[in-house]
Structure formats: structure tokens, C-alpha cells
Write a structure and sequence with these properties.
- Helix 1 packs across helix 2 and helix 2 crosses helix 3.
- It is elongated and about 40 Å long.
- The model has no long low-confidence stretch (mean pLDDT about 90).
- It contains 3 helices and no strands.
- It is an all-alpha fold.
């Protein structure tokens, strides 16, 4: 599985990449929660691959 870029994450969230960067700068809690969500998805995918 490839690591997602910020642009990929923005596309997945249906927002502009600049919005994600603005969240990082101005809404750090929101940005942190979003990043944890993506990390959680990665962990689930790795867990599925390990299980199979």
C-alpha cells in the first residue's frame, strides 16, 4: 500500500489541498483529528493484509 500524499487526502475528503494546509495552520485540532483518521485507515488495511 502506498503512502497517501496530502493531495490524495484532500481529494478523498472532497476539499482543495489548500484547505488541508490551512487547517494545519489555523485549525490544528481539526487537522490532527483528520490525520488520525487516515492513520487509523492505514492500520486497518495493514491488519487486513496481515490477517490474510
Amino acid at each position: 500500500m502506498q503512502k497517501r500524499t496530502k493531495r490524495d487526502m484532500a481529494y478523498c475528503l472532497d476539499i482543495d489541498a489548500a484547505t488541508l494546509y490551512n487547517w494545519r495552520k489555523n485549525k490544528s485540532n481539526l487537522y490532527r483529528i483528520v490525520m488520525h483518521g487516515f492513520k487509523f485507515d492505514e492500520l486497518i488495511e495493514k491488519s487486513k493484509q496481515t490477517y490474510e
